[in-house]
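If your schedule permits, I should be very grateful for your opinion on a structural question. Please examine both parts with care and let me know of anything in them that strikes you as inconsistent. The record follows directly beneath this note:
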Amino acid sequence: MNLQGHTIAVIDDDLRVLESIVNLLASFGYDAESFKSAEQFLTSGGLPRTSCIITDVEMRQMSGLGLLQYLKNGNCTVPVIIITGKPSVRSETFYLESGAVGFFRKPVDGDALVELIGSVCV
């Protein structure tokens, strides 16, 4: 399902996860673009054509939560899905209350991710 000029931005500093999610989305017909950091995404100029963001929580500079807060502070309405591979005291509820539209632990359930994207990116 190509969203005609709209891209799903996938942000993760783990290149295996990044490639895996981009390939999964491509297999469902989505146009996905990979970024190794939140900063790389923000400086890419791609935000206006982005229909959804999937971001890891733990990254070297700006975290996924930091990106979510940055976007919310800028009144950006692009849906953000948080993924994490590290156990945390923060729960799914915390991320959803912070403005994320979804939360997944790694390894990400691909079917559930695609289902969520289908409901929030159209």
Summary: Residues 69 and 82 are 12 Å apart (CA to CA). The chain has a mean pLDDT of 91. The radius of gyration is 13 Å. Residues 15-27 form the longest helix (13 residues).
